[in-house]
Amino acid sequence: MDRFVFLTVDGLAHGAVLAVFALALVLIWRAARVVNFAQGAMAVATAYVAASITEATGSYWLGFVGALVAGLALGVAVERGVMRLVDHRAPLNPVIVALGLVLLIQAVLGMLYGNEYRPIGAPLSRTALDVWGVPAVSRFDLFVFGTVAALVGLLALLFTRTGLGLRMRAAAFAPEVSRLLGVNVAGMLTVGWALASAAGALAALLTVPTGLGLHPTAMDLVFVSAFTGAVIGGLDSPVGAVIGGVGVGLLVSYVTGYVGGDLASLAVAGLLVAVLLVRPGGLVATASARRA
Amino acid sequence: MSDPLLKVEDLTAGYGAAPVLRDVRFAMSDGQITAVLGANGAGKTTLLRTLSGLVRPTGGRILFDGEPLDGVPPHRLVRRGLVHVPEGRGVIGELTVAENLRLGGVWRRDRAGEARSLAEVLDLFPEIARRRRHAAHQLSGGERQMLALGRALMARPRLLLLDEPSLGLAPRITAQVMALLRQWRDATGLAVLLVEQNVRSALSVADNAAVMSLGRVVVTAPAAQLRDDEDLRHTYLGF
Predict the structure, then answer these.
(1) Cα of A33 to nearest chain B Cα, Å
(2) B55, B15 Cβ separation under 8 angstroms
(3) pTM greater than the 0.90 cutoff
(4) What's the pLDDT at B2?
(5) Mutate which: B45, B94, B153, vs A, most A CBs within 10 A
(6) Which residues cross the membrane (chain A) (predicted)?
(7) In this complex, is the C-beta atom of B107 within 8 Å of any C-beta atom belonging to chain A?
């Protein structure tokens, strides 16, 4: 029983981070029809910003806020400075450019900070607290759940309750019509990239302390898992991204705990194939509404 | 007579090498409904797309309210009162009816005025008002046309560019749409540039008409004259 509780909480915490990262991928996919393969590298870059600020000021929280701001700025820079210049008529072009960005960002980070793992401490204790006598959840886990819930809630409010959210959704669904209605579609795209990049930064902040440490490739595995989660959920659906991310997190945790870590990736691939066989558009597919 | 609301001078535009519009010239003033008639491929839709900034002109000038429009992006034109309802109506099916309507005035800063516009539009289209919470893709063709019109009116337009509002609609609904246009024009002084294949229904509502052929405006005349003068009708409209 203890083991099951531990694996579930651990899977949920990891899954929450994957959900945020998948959500960031979905944000950009919906706005630009591009899978941002550079998202992992971009997120690591902001985590380095956080580490530098924390080192200079001694404050973890200044670094935390600094990374989110850096995430917003990096998203704007990548969209305005790189992606906007790419010819999107062939879908492969932005993918290749994004992969090039990965190499560029990782190389620059390596030159600036070195290619060693740099241990990053968690801001809160990672020792599990007892709940009814069972060691269940650590303060850091609670912090992860709280931050992820806050982010998901804020994004949901933004998209369903505000004029900006309405403009962003309209621009994604029908760019030309939106322009005719007074929506600055190019501007909405920039906002989308900024938000997604900041969400990616948050995911990096929440996951790097639980791994080997900070490294230019530290988010690569997270990217792969989150991308899988986003596809399982349905790339078009923010709700699907959260479900897919949490699902992959739980599956990895259970398989690692009960069967063995070697099989975790295989299990995730199996889940992906199974879901796509049954529902090719992902669990939360919106294809029917789109074509009506 | 004051300056015309819209003045088009020697407008040339197209996609790629071959121009679709050649030296198009016409003018219209506030409160006027002008029908643009002509066969398929005459350049009617391209004319609207050029006026609303979706297609870049390669020559000539567009003056709206006395000011040139070259290089002004579409989303800024809406703020000046030039609103384009595209062919197929452009209702966003993924959004609800209420969201579509809100989108029409989403750039506006005056919340009170926006609420007033919404009340007016809902008053004008009771069947839309009843279905506010539905997804827009659930609406019928006629309801979509009403929604697209209502959404355009949310922007308080001075000039409405309408591309084939009768497309796919039953004659009764088309007549209803045309009557609404007239009513709104009489109430607000709105000007309408109406592109139509349905010549009879367009001439029934328009004050003036411009006939296009192969990218040029070949004749402009009062709508009544085109309706009643058999020679003119034979020559330019073929019936």
Answers:
(1) 16
(2) yes
(3) no
(4) 63
(5) B94
(6) 12-29, 34-53, 59-78, 90-113, 142-160, 181-206, 212-232, 239-260, 266-287
(7) yes
